[in-house]
């Protein structure tokens, strides 16, 4: 099963061509024409901030709508009950547990990116929280001042020049792109928790999903603007781009 | 010399004792009130209510705005009922609305949370002509929606008296609603409180339009500012292990970004401009004005919108009034002029009522960024002893400051003009 996952991931990554990225923003390429007015107005230039590469937009918009419905009928009722029935302490414990599982992954990516600080924090946080923190339920490492540094496979691939590919709205999960989706799938396949059956793995993943959803305030179609899809896309792509450029600073 | 000293001492005495932390009006507007200085309240939940008003056909791409939505925070016993009206373009459940509702609830009120005339849901599903901008007309529409809202929640609340309050445009609307109700007597408002109201819609819109237009050259600068903020948020959430953006997060983010006054103005102007862009699009589409949208083109449910954003190209509030609002109003009254519209959108239209009403109160700030000097002077003149002007706080920045809230609640419950 795991092999199939990795194969799919490789296919994903294979789809996006590999080349070293040059950091040139589209704005630098096209000079904005500014009127010879004494007072410069924003409206004198062209607005191209929303012109982003989104070849799958018609499909993405439909998945966006599907996610809204899924939220309404499944995700939110479950996450509301989760919030209602489980006290904050237990929810924090669950969140710490899942978050702890990603520490080794951060460390591995730290090795790949030659980022010794992340390797150190990843390994030490994982050891401390798994032992003293009772299997990761308590975040002791943060208490003793070893703050979290998260690096994902997506960060590594980005730094090594794998292009992000088209923007995607993933079913159940929301905004992503081809490279990031592949990275998430691989990470899922390599996850240290393996019960032996895919069903159980998916249930565990489901609990993690509920935990994440219950801590995310975002609601589909409620940003207060008719340009919501475009705004979400812009914020996602911008933040990915900024993360990529500043990965060492974040 | 003596006189100067006297004036200096007087100014000091006047400001003395008011410890709201941000003396810069733009910083105050953005950062609002730090948690430790805020009025205390519990995280009460609200219930979302929907009314189907069937004003006109809803465009397929705005299917989610088909029903008019508002909120209710109901006490489980008999309690005074208050209508809370949101600011310009704000949803009924925005962060500010939620905080204010919770504070009112904490002080014993049942709260009906409503947006005002520039909210996209209101324009699409509650407004009859879908072109906000004339204060009197907009307020009459809100008045009739309030009746329906009350009808809808009647079984969920027990009340004897009704109050109304609002901030920013919601505050202005509350004052006009008071005048309407003084004639119609449907609600018989016991008291009316306006927090940081605008005096004239156009003066305020112009100030806010210019905050962006005069301080930024092009979209690229806006983009750079956006990137700066995103990076700040990322660093903050990595450092604190949380993605929650609350007052504390905003504060530390701004401390870290070290923004200039010009950048602060751009931020306030941009927040308002995004509302103007939405209004330009929605009103154009709903009124079939054909400025940015083609009235004959069939719109699909999953319509791509970036082309419209490009076409609107940061059109501001004044553009909206000139190209869409004015055209729509003229269909109803051929002889209407721009001057008349401007006059109609001022509190001057309800001046007599405001002068004579003992149950109306206004709270604002000396450094309010959406009022001209004349606006503020006018407000002080007509409200007399029924206005409280704090020395600073910007636009709604000190709204939740404990001292301000004490004052507002005290007036609502006891009718005190201190």
TrEMBL record, chain A:
Protein name (database record): VacJ family lipoprotein
Signal sequence coordinates: none
Family: Belongs to the MlaA family.
Keyword ATP-binding applies: no
Keyword Transcription: no
Record key words, sorted: Lipoprotein, Signal
Automatic annotation (TrEMBL), chain B:
Gene Ontology molecular function: any one: protein serine/threonine kinase activity
Entry annotated with the keyword Calcium: no
Name by which UniProt lists this protein: Serine/threonine protein kinase
Originating organism: Psychrilyobacter piezotolerans
Residue ranges that the Swiss-Prot or TrEMBL entry lists as coiled coil: none
Keywords recorded for this protein, A-Z: Kinase, Serine/threonine-protein kinase, Transferase
Upper lineage: Bacteria, Fusobacteriati, Fusobacteriota, Fusobacteriia, Fusobacteriales
UniProt xrefs under InterPro entries: AB_hydrolase_fold, MlaA
């Amino acid at each position: 099963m795991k092999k199939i996952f990795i194969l799919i991931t490789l296919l994903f990554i294979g789809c996006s061509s590999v080349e070293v990225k040059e950091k040139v923003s589209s704005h630098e390429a096209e000079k904005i024409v500014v009127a010879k007015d004494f007072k410069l107005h924003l409206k004198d230039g062209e607005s191209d901030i929303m012109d982003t590469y989104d070849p799958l937009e018609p499909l993405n918009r439909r998945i966006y709508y599907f996610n809204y419905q899924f939220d309404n009928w499944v995700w939110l009722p479950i996450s509301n009950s989760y919030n209602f029935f489980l006290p904050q302490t237990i929810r924090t414990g669950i969140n710490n547990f899942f978050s702890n599982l990603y520490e080794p992954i951060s460390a591995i990516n730290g090795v790949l990116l030659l980022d010794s600080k992340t390797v150190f924090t990843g390994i030490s946080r994982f050891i401390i929280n798994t032992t003293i923190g009772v299997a990761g339920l308590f975040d002791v490492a943060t208490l003793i001042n070893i703050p979290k540094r998260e690096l994902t496979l997506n960060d590594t691939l980005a730094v090594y020049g794998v292009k992000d590919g088209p923007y995607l709205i993933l079913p159940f999960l929301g905004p992503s792109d081809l490279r990031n989706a592949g990275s998430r799938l691989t990470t899922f396949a390599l996850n240290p928790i393996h019960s032996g059956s895919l069903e159980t793995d998916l249930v565990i993943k489901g609990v993690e999903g509920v935990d994440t959803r219950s801590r995310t305030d975002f609601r589909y179609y409620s940003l207060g603007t008719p340009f919501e899809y475009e705004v979400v896309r812009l914020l996602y792509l911008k933040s990915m781009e900024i993360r990529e450029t500043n990965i060492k600073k974040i | 010399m003596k006189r100067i000293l006297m004036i200096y001492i007087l100014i000091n005495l006047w400001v003395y004792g008011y410890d709201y932390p941000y003396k810069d009006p733009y910083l105050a507007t953005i950062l609002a009130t730090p948690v430790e200085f805020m009025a205390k309240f519990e995280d009460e939940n609200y219930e979302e209510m929907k009314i189907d008003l069937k004003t006109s056909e809803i465009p397929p791409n705005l299917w989610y705005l088909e029903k008019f939505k508002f909120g209710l925070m109901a006490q489980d016993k008999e309690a005074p009922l208050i209508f809370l009206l949101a600011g310009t373009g704000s949803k009924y459940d925005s962060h500010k609305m939620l905080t204010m509702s919770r504070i009112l609830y904490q002080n014993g009120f049942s709260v009906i949370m409503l947006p005002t005339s520039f909210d996209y849901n209101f324009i699409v599903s509650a407004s009859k002509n879908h072109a906000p901008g004339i204060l009197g007309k907009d307020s009459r529409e809100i008045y009739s929606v309030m009746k329906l809202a009350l009808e809808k929640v009647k079984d969920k609340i027990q009340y004897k008296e009704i109050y109304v309050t609002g901030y920013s445009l919601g505050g202005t609307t509350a004052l006009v609603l008071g005048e309407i109700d003084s004639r119609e007597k449907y609600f018989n408002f016991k008291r009316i409180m306006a927090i940081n109201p605008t005096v004239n819609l156009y003066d305020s819109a112009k100030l806010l339009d210019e905050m962006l237009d005069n301080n930024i050259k092009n979209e690229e600068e806006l983009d750079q500012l956006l990137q700066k903020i995103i990076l700040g948020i990322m660093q903050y959430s990595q450092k604190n292990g949380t993605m929650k953006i609350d007052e504390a997060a905003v504060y530390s983010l701004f401390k870290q970004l070290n923004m200039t006054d010009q950048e602060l103005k751009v931020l306030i102007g941009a927040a308002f401009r995004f509302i103007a862009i939405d209004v330009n699009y929605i009103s154009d589409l709903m009124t079939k004005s054909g400025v940015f949208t083609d009235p004959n083109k069939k719109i699909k449910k999953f319509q791509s919108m970036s082309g419209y954003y490009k076409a609107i190209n940061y059109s501001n509030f004044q553009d909206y009034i000139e190209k869409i609002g004015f055209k729509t109003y003229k269909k109803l009254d051929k002889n209407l002029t721009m001057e008349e519209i401007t006059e109609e959108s001022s509190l001057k239209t309800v001046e007599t009522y405001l002068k004579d009403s003992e149950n109306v109160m206004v709270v604002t700030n000396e450094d309010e960024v959406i009022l001209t000097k004349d606006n503020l002077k006018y407000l002080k003149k007509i409200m007399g002893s029924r206005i409280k002007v704090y020395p600073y706080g910007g636009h709604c920045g000190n709204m939740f400051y404990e001292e301000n809230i004490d004052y507002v609640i005290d007036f609502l419950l006891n009718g005190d003009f201190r």
